[in-house]
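Entry for the shared binder. Reason: the reviewer on the internal report wants the predicted structure included alongside the sequence.
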Amino acid sequence: MITSTLVLPLIATSTIAVIIFIALGFLPTPSRATALWSAGFVCAMIGSYVWLGYEVLEMAPLRGLGSGLIIAPMALMWSGLRAYRGATRQFIPLSVAFLIAMPLALMVSTFSDAYGITFRVLFSATSVFAVLTIIELLRLGPHKRDEASPLLAVSGLFLVFTVITNINGFMVAQHVTANADSLQFLRSTNMIGSNAYIICTLVTVLLLTARSNNGERTPHGAFERIARDRLNRAEATNDQWWSLLDIRLDDPDDIRAASSTAAFNATCDRFMHDVELVLPADADIERMGPTRIIALVPRAQGGVRELLIELLERISTVDEVQALPIRLSASIGWAQVENVGYDLDELVVAAAEAVQVAQTTGGDRWERVHATVE
């Protein structure tokens, strides 16, 4: 029988995880990924209470059902990662089928002497989802390395537990240890590992949800209100000396992969500082992400060009105190109201398209949006 000293912390952990993720993850940012992750936490919580029922009522089928409900949601977490990454196929039916089949198989096996081997087989099958989870986390790229680290670590630990579980089964088969002692060992490690897995998974998926879309966001808040007001007044007076700049650090993924978190953050801060120093005081600046800035600048074409030359030179200058001793560069998309119009959304889109052209042609340059020929 599982002792309450192990099951009660699991109940507390899983319940808190459900409350925290639904309140801070799913409700503020509803999506397929957060829905799948919420369902996974809920299943684990239900499993922990079912396992408590086994302890109280001493009904073996509840042991198998609870154990399966706690472990099987790993498949949902994997599908959620695929949905978060934007993969075309999330294999949700496969994950749901595994979520149903594993608890039922374990519950049925408690009516015979096959529970031990059934648990080991299904536990090993679950390790496949641990490997797939690791692959999905790595596919998120270096810019999500910190957020992925807790779930990466605990998924690797799950594989270690799988090996230990199978070694334990081999020892039982060779009569090195008693089957009853073996099952007690499996239950204890299962409870401890489940606590660790729920906590690490909660940290990772909550950070991924909070920092979704690679830290990018659309113009908002004070910047949007001020920029729209300026553009409306400029349009009323036919003032065409306004430009929207989309400024992006080149090769951010390569920089992130080659640096520590502190060095990367320092590099991004220096990038922002350079932009603030070069652009005039009457420019409106919005940080869209660690390596992307947009700015509304009230200058004629010649004045903007001088600013861009100075900005690119400043960003590419290597100094002794910068966090990474490498030459940085940036690409800039330049959209003028004369060519695009006074609508902020259209200016942002046009500048974003222009900066992508600048980056694909080598970076360290700007690309200006030209007037559309009717």
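Summary line for the report: The first helix runs from residue 4 to 26.
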